[in-house]
Amino acid sequence: MFEDQQRDAVEALKKADAEFRRLYQKHTELNSKVDNAEIGVLPVDDMTLSSMKKEKLQIKERLQRMWDDHHARQHIH
Q1: Whole-angstrom Cα distance, residue 2 to residue 35?
Q2: Binning pLDDT at 50, 70 and 90, where does residue 4 land?
């Protein structure tokens, strides 16, 4: 996630914003679990996998809004 953005800028926002950092970590954990479930390493049923994917997407959308808001505020100053 945020592959298009500068790594340093993402790291700076993670350090500056505890909520962004928490959500970023949660997204990373879910991403790993979903990947492992899809290749069969993590045994989960389809309902659980679907739920994890939905949660991951919701977190990603929230992170993107936070990222966009952060950069909008920076361009105002």
Answers
A1: 18
A2: low
Entry pTM: 0.86
Q: What local confidence, expressed as pLDDT, does residue 3 receive?
A: 66
- Residue 42: is its pLDDT beyond 90? yes
User: Cα–Cα distance between 30 and 32 in angstroms, integer?
Assistant: 5
42 touches 36 (CB < 8 A): yes
Query: Who's near 20: CB < 8 A, 6+ residues apart?
Result: 13, 14, 63, 66, 67, 70
One DSSP character per residue, the chain reads: --TTS-HHHHHHHHHH-HHHHHHHHHHHHHHHHHHHHHTTSS---HHHHHHHHHHHHHHHHHHHHHHHHHHHHHHH-
